[in-house]
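Chapter summary example.
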Amino acid sequence: MAWGHVKDPYLVENIVEEIFLKYIIHLDQHQDKRTIKAWLYTVRKNQCKDYLRTKYCKYGGSYT
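The structure predicted for these 64 residues follows.
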C-alpha cells in the first residue's frame, strides 16, 4: 500500500519499518483486534503523507 504513495522501494521499506515499530511500541493499547487493521492503515497513510510533505518542502517540487 505504501508503494502506491511513495514509489521508491527503499523508502517503502523504511516507512514499513517505522509503521511496525510504532505498532510494537503501542501494542499494549490495542486490546480489540478489530481496531488494529484500521490503526495500521491510518499510520501508513500518515507516514506516507509525512514523507511526501518532507520531500515537497525539501526539494520544492511536486509530490510525485
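To summarize the output: The two ends are 16 Å apart (CA to CA).
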